[in-house]
């Protein structure tokens, strides 16, 4: 019998490789509970499936080649943690930012709570500051 932790790790790997990395928004939306709570969404983005739609549409529009390379997936009970690197090129409008045509590579750590193969809570840990520096919209530190 496969443990819940193993099932959740397999779901996480499938979600990242087959849904997120293929930018399949329709399939992506099936991976989230209707009332999903995104603890790290930008302030102007609502929670629930509407917010998920807004956020991932912005990501896939502004960073159309975005790709997650996953280094670790750890699960305990209904909680899954993934650690990796996001790479992308900012060639489209990303929220309020016009394209800079810069490449970015930023570390990411995400924590999800999974129930019945759906994300019900998530905390995203993208290095947003580093990404903005790489895009050239925030000056580098120290000069």
How would you explain this protein's 3D organization?
The protein is of the alpha+beta class and 143 residues long. The protein has a single domain (4-135), classed as Nuclear Transport Factor 2, Chain: A (Roll), CATH 3.10.450.50. 31% of the residues lie in helices and 35% in strands. It has four helices and five strands, in the order ααβαββββα. Strands 1-5-4-3-2 form a five-stranded mixed sheet. Strand 4 and strand 5 form a beta hairpin. The chain is globular, with a radius of gyration of 15 Å. 17% of the residues are buried. The model has no long low-confidence stretch (mean pLDDT 93).
Shape: globular
Q: What is the CATH class name?
A: Alpha Beta
- Largest sheet strand order: 1-5-4-3-2
* Mean of residue pLDDT values: 93
Distance between the termini: 57 Å
Enumerate how many helices there are, as a single number.
4
Which regions contain 5 or more consecutive residues with pLDDT less than 50? none
Element order, helices and strands? HHEHEEEEH
What is the architecture at the second tier of CATH?
Roll
Q: Report the helical percentage.
A: 25-40%
CATH topology: Nuclear Transport Factor 2, Chain: A
Biggest sheet overview: 5 strands, mixed
* Integer tally of domains: 1
Strand content: 25-35%
């Amino acid at each position: 019998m496969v443990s819940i932790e193993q099932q959740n790790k397999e779901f996480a790997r499938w979600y990242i490789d087959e849904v997120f990395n293929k930018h399949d928004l329709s399939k992506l939306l099936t991976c989230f509970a209707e009332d999903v709570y995104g603890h790290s969404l930008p302030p102007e983005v609502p929670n629930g499936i509407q917010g998920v739609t807004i956020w991932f549409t912005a990501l896939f529009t502004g960073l159309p080649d975005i790709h997650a390379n996953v280094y670790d997936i750890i699960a305990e009970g209904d909680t899954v943690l993934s650690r990796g690197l996001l790479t992308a090129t900012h060639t489209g409008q990303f929220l309020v930012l016009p394209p800079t045509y810069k490449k970015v590579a930023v570390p990411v750590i995400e924590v999800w709570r999974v129930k019945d193969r759906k994300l019900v809570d998530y905390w995203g840990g993208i290095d947003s500051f580093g990404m903005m520096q790489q895009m050239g919209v925030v000056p580098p530190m120290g000069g």
